Amino acid sequence: MSVEYLGTIRLLHELYLIDPCLVSRRFFVALLRDHSIIFNCKRLQRLRRMMGGEAIHCKPLTGIPDKNHYK
Is the distance from CB of 50 to CB of 58 less than 8 angstroms? Predict the structure, then answer.
């Protein structure tokens, strides 16, 4: 891996530790605004999957039935 590639991964990891609620599009904005680095959103998604980072947010509760629903 190149030094630039590893530096980018380190930077993504630092941003994730600062705010784990960021999704890839907000990562894109933060990198552009704070560090003047331009990446494609798909590349950021791929790097985050490789790192194992996932945004922290409420997942859909599709398996819980509604108590008012008649079966």
Answer: no
Model confidence pLDDT, tens digit, residues 20-48: 877 778 888 888 888 888 878 888 888 88
Burial of 27 (0-12, 13-18, 19+ CB in 10 A): buried
Distance CA 66, CA 48 (A): 35
C-alpha distances (whole Å) from 20 to each of 3, 42, 58, 62, 64 are 24, 18, 13, 24, 27
Q: CA 33, 36, 41 angle in degrees (round to 5)?
A: 75
Task: Report the alpha-carbon distance of residue 65 to residue 51 in Å, rounded.
Answer: 35
Amino acid letter for position 64: I
Q: What is the pTM of this model?
A: 0.62
